Amino acid sequence: MIFQPFTIKNVTFKNRILRSSIGGRTSYYDGTVNPAWKRFETRFAEGGVGGIISATVTVDDKRWSPLEYPKLSHDRFIKPIGEVVRAVQALDCRYILQLGDAGYHTQTSLFPQAEDCQSASSGFDFLFGYGNRSIAMTTEEIERTVRNFADAARRVREAGCDGVEITASKGYIIHQFLNPATNRRTDRYGGSVARRFQFLREIVHAVRRTVGNDFLFGVRLSALDYNYLPVNIRLPVVWPLRDYWMGNTLDETLYYGEELAQLGVDYLHISNGFGFINPKESPGGWPIDEMRHYVNSTRHLSTKANLRAIMANVLPRWLLQRIFSIGWDYVPAVNAEHARIFKHTLKLPVIGNGGFQDKATIEHALANGQCDLVAMARPLLANPNLLRLFEQNFDKPERPCTHCNRCSIATAVHPLGCYDASRFSSQDEMEAQILWWTGGPNTECD
């Protein structure tokens, strides 16, 4: 079924494989995409994927992370993004732009700023974000964020994209309102399940009103939050403990899905977990060395960030590995069963995400109705010719992605590419592939 076309609304994908949201430092310092971003995106299209879901593009002009990631917070960003979109579409590949706002999960900044700490409620989170504490947003700030999403969605359409996707997962700001551990508000935006959904409801209303009923509009949603993974210190403790330990259950997220369907969302993109990265969204290993690179690059931003870096450098590697590897393991199609539940309960098209690489696993998920399309990123980053291999009836590449997750963390400070040395015959070969992704047209990758 991989190579059977599939249509959602008025957009037809030539096959069932989408490049999932993945991004790197491929923009200028003001957030304008540069030629490296165009080369990065078009090389996936050249590899034969049916569609691309962009990196999470920020809707807030100040809350932006990491630096050199793209923005869509002003009309001046429309034209350069549109040029990339047209280049991708010319290769018979559809382009969906994913919008988001990291909230207090903003991981990097040139200088510390209060905007990077905003969330549903105040609190402490050791692992995610650089701020010492999150800060509860005012009603006016919430309303401004809703407008930010609507304005950015208009720009998505004006840039010529095939669709827009809102990320209500990854632990970003919408997810912070949905999650009972991070939303302890007592106004109309917090408390009950319905009130926790209110922020997303207003965003979906505003986006649909802005882009029109004929434009493809999807939402990325976590089926379960798994707040206890990865290992973290999050305060205050919330009662009941289930809300603190797990977060949203399947009953609650199915409620969110039903509401989204009634609001006219065209598809759901199902993953799992709270925070980026987490072991349910990116199953595999936990890269200690890349974590050290990241925390050392942000230690100047706050006391918490400095303590985090001290811990990462002082504690022995074996102890860090033992602590932070809890819950990290590779599970094929880790979220496929939850995707199936959403697909059959809500009767909406569903994109499955997490732990896909082998042709047989993907075919099984599609043939058994677990999802309609499969999105993946790391396996395509490791093997940009993966779709061509599937066409030749190979089940997997000779040197498959090992799901080590080094790329997921390295991108905060390094060029995006595969950093697993075990997949290459030499460091020079690994470096050549990393630089090939965003290098010039004559850059070679053996």
Précis, in short:
The chain has 446 residues and is an alpha/beta fold. It has helices at 35-46, 78-89, 139-158, 173-178, 193-196, 198-211, 241-245, 250-262, 288-298, 303-314, 317-324, 336-346, 359-367, 378-382, 386-391, 406-410, 427-438, and strands at residues 6-8, 11-13, 17-19, 51-53, 57-58, 94-100, 118-119, 124-125, 135-136, 163-168, 216-222, 234-235, 267-271, 350-353, 373-376. It is globular, with a radius of gyration of 20 Å.
Detailed description of the structure:
The chain has 17 helices and 15 strands. The chain is of the alpha/beta class. The longest helix has 20 residues. It is globular and about 55 Å long. The protein starts with 5 loop residues before the first strand and ends in an 8-residue tail after the last helix.
Task: Describe this protein with a few key phrases.
single chain, 446 residues, alpha/beta, TIM Barrel, eight-stranded parallel beta barrel, two-stranded antiparallel sheet, 15 strands, 37% helix
Structural class: alpha/beta
**Can you count the beta strands?**
15
The CATH class designation is: Alpha Beta
Q: What value does the average pLDDT take?
A: 96
CATH superfamily: Aldolase class I
